[in-house]
Amino acid sequence: MTDYDVLRVFCGPNGGYGNELGVVREGSVLPGRGDRQALAAKLGFSETVFVDDPERGLIDIYTPTLRLPFAGHPCVGTAWLLDVPELVTPAGVVGTRLDGEFSWIEARAEWAPPRTLRQYATAAEVDALDVPPPGEWLYAWAWEDEAAGRVRARAFPGRGDGVEEDEATGAAALLLTERLGRALNIVQGRGSQILTAPQPHGWVEVGGRVVLER
Question: What sign does the CA torsion over 41, 195, 10, 106 have?
Fold first, then answer.
């Protein structure tokens, strides 16, 4: 089995929850896309990252069924693991920074895959949702405290690949921040926390806590 690290990204204040991420630090051991896709499917994480150049931050991201040009929680986690000033993805160069307990990336909304952002009237409605049938990548959200920018959210990829609900989703949080035009404090899934902040010229920062699981 290829060596890989497992991180939890966007952990809650006590270090719990977060979305698991597989990171293969030596991507050269699996240079082919087919082999990478097969490993990502075998591991079963919502995303797996292959690091092709750790000094430059060159990375390649896969779900269990497809390759992504950009994704939020893989970039936040890999930025924390490699401690580099930027990551190079097929979508573009992602700025990174570490600030105390938070790892941050800076990216653009147009890099994120399309998502359906559906607002609900209350956080309780979001909590009560059942997993929808495959076919639509749904980000369900509601204000917990609109004045404070606090959001309750759940994410349903709808790919039919075994990942029925995404515990924490940086790309969807980026899209929501770009739509609302304001900083957000998002509680997603069972208790993960995502912080965001719009930046000048169409950039958005997305940050969270990262823990090395193994």
Answer: positive
Which pair of structure tokens corresponds to residue 171? 């790309």
pLDDT in tens, 133-157: 999 999 999 999 999 999 999 999 9
CA–CA gap between residue 62 and residue 161 (Å, rounded): 12
Q: What is the pLDDT of residues 193-203, one digit of tens each?
A: 999 999 999 99
Burial class (CB in 10 A: 0-12, 13-18, 19+), 80: buried
By the 10 Å C-beta count (0-12 exposed, 13-18 middle, 19+ buried), 2 is classed as: middle
Q: Where are the alpha helices (DSSP H) in the chain?
A: 33-43, 72-82, 123-127, 170-180
Ranges of residues in the chain whose predicted pLDDT is under 70? 1
Cβ–Cβ < 8 Å for 182, 204? no
CA-based nearest residue to 112, from 56, 155, 57, 50? 155
